[in-house]
Amino acid sequence: MLLRELREERGLSQFALALQTEVSQRHLSFVETGRANPSPELIGKLADRLELALRERNRLLLAAGHAPVYRETSLDDVELDAVREAARRILKAHEPAPALLVDRRWNVVELNQGVALLAVLVAPHLLEPPVNVMRVSLHPDGLAPHVVNFGQWREHLLARLRRQIAVSLDDELAGLYEEVSSYPGVKGTPAPTGNEAADVLLPMRLRVGDRELEFFSTMTVFGTAADITVAELAIESFFPADAETRKVLEDLA
């Protein structure tokens, strides 16, 4: 059942998945209905084709009666000290521009001093741990009233969450989506119409005092992670998208 759900979320037919993993459609049907138990090797092939994250690979193994392969280490464990130190160095090097380290549910793990530029616009209750990036971005007491192109930015963030939920089938992420998508819109901020002039990158246009700053962001992950916790960490870094924003950051530096 889990395999079928993961396959259907990716828009793959049973025939296509069977063909790409070099098994018969009949055998794959038996695997999906629980009439046959796949070997760990077949699960590995299926996981590769479905591009499953480490957590979902463990779930498939457990569903088939096998022991999970990938461990999940607590963020506070001494074994992850080197990972957190590496992240801190990256965050520090990105100053004065904002950058932060988040977990798979968009909770902030580490941040740099540049985030203060954004935090001053956010109500204190949204900055109480655990700070969640999606809540801060979309809540009416957060950045939402200050984002000039909020309609576009909101849809971008919600689409990102929808994709993440489709891949992970994570109930907590689904709950987060239900929460943030129910926040009221910001007065005077039009929703995207679908015919806006396309930017090379979708910027976040932020009104700070009498200035309008413009940022685009990148996401960085640990490419060789063999631990679930590490694999699900990501660094979001904001870069100036125009000369004025670059000048503001230089002044802050």
UniProtKB/TrEMBL annotation:
Coiled coil: none annotated. Residues 3-57 form the HTH cro/C1-type domain. SMART domains: HTH_XRE. InterPro entries: Cro/C1-type_HTH (IPR001387), Lambda_DNA-bd_dom_sf (IPR010982), MLTR_LBD (IPR041413). SUPFAM superfamilies: lambda repressor-like DNA-binding domains (SSF47413). Pfam families: HTH_3, MLTR_LBD. This is Helix-turn-helix transcriptional regulator. The lineage of its organism: Bacteria, Bacillati, Actinomycetota, Actinomycetes, Streptosporangiales. It comes from Actinocorallia aurantiaca.
